[in-house]
Amino acid sequence: MTMPETVTSALPLLRVRGLSKRYPTGATALSDVNLDVPAGQVLALIGPSGAGKSTLIRCVNRLVEPSSGELSLAGRSLAGLGRRGLREARRQLGMIFQEYALVERLTVMENVLSGRLGYTGFWRSWLRRFSGEDVAQAYAFLERVGLSGYENQRADALSGGQRQRVGIARALMQDPLLLLVDEPTASLDPRTSRHVMRLLCELCRERGLSAIVNIHDVALATRFADRIVGLQKGRIVYDGAPAGLGAAALTAIYGEEDWNAPGTTDAGQTEPPPESVPSVSALPAARPAVSYSRAPAT
């Protein structure tokens, strides 16, 4: 597997112009959103519930159809793509979901290899006939996200933090240019949340990836992201560096609050210890699982 192709620096990796989404009920989720995301940038989307954060991410990969506006990735328009063109475009968009979106009865390795489905025919994927190169790359990603040795465990036996790391490895298997990350820490405890955000940002730097991260935790966003975009009622009301996210900007995003009042901080916390995996020997599989092993060295 190759590293993602280089995007010309003069052109933003993702360009969003005049993006709006209105539902048949008359509700407006997004209104005239304009955004450029350069290659290699981790952008955090923040805002109250219902501000349009998840809708924006889903419009980018066309899980939600925009009502109007333009979207382009690496200079290629994402609007009006047919089934084949959309499948090709989605190879470059790695999606990481809040609820993990793993196939619970499959193994960790099988879930990670499903990131290659955009490149693999239906029958080969159904029969789980992945190339040796894909299997070797999956092992490398599992080791990088801290799950070496877990490849043959079932997904439904993992903790939340481990499932999220499987989702990250699966997204990387696509060779994406852009990661779309929807509330990756919403179901995790504070220490695991920090670990997952740190891992995401490290991987983006290592592989030259951009990421748009929809996140409710402002402290995590300002700690790890390169840029903050704040949404309020479907409109961008803040777009700038984390250091500039002061009381006035937070009020514009979330409404009136005493943002300078004393509160808890995450200072002094350390990395979470490795999480244990419960036994899965008693759990029946829907189909016989395929056991993967490393190819012998030559």
List low-pLDDT spans: 1-9, 264-288
Q: Widest sheet: strand order?
A: 6-7-8-3-9-10
Strand content: 15-25%
In helices, the fraction of residues equals 25-40%
Which features does this protein show?
disordered N terminus; 6-stranded mixed β-sheet; 9 helices; 4-stranded antiparallel β-sheet; alpha/beta; single chain; 10 strands; 298 residues
What does this molecule look like?
By secondary structure, the protein is α/β, with parallel strands linked by helices. The chain is 29% helix and 19% strand. The chain is built from nine helices and ten strands. It has a six-stranded mixed β-sheet, with helices on both faces. Strands 2-1-4-5 form a four-stranded antiparallel β-sheet. Strand 4 and strand 5 (76-77) form a beta hairpin. Helix 6 (160-172) runs parallel beside helix 7. The model is unreliable at 1-9 and 264-288 (pLDDT under 50).
